[in-house]
Amino acid sequence: YLRTKIAELRKQKKITQEELANAVGVTRQTITSIEVEKYTASLVLAHKIAKYFDSTIEEIFDFSDWEEQ
Asked: What are phi and psi of 56, to 5 degrees?
């Protein structure tokens, strides 16, 4: 699973998991699972999250472990 910066970005923007979930069209549980690294976002969802935070996928998701494989 990928490490992400979603939790810290949410805190900077002062938004809840619920608000982010609604903005990108998933459940709060999905956001929770991504943040605690129990679920890897699909490419489409990763793109929506990156767009929401006006960022790139690479700035939010840490691919370093995957690149070594």
From this structure: -100, 160
The DSSP call for residue 42 is P
Q: Is the pLDDT of residue 68 over 80?
A: no
Output DSSP code: residue 2.
-
C-alpha torsion sign, points 33, 34, 38, 41: positive
Q: Residue 19 and residue 28: Cα distance in Å, rounded?
A: 8
37: left (phi over 0), alpha (psi -120 to 50) or beta: left
DSSP annotation of 4 reads E
Lookup: tokens for 37: 């690294």
Q: How far apart are CA 42 and CA 31, in angstroms?
A: 12
Average pLDDT, the chain: 94
- Computed from CA positions of residues 28, 29, 33, 39, in that sequence, does the dihedral angle turn out positive or negative? negative
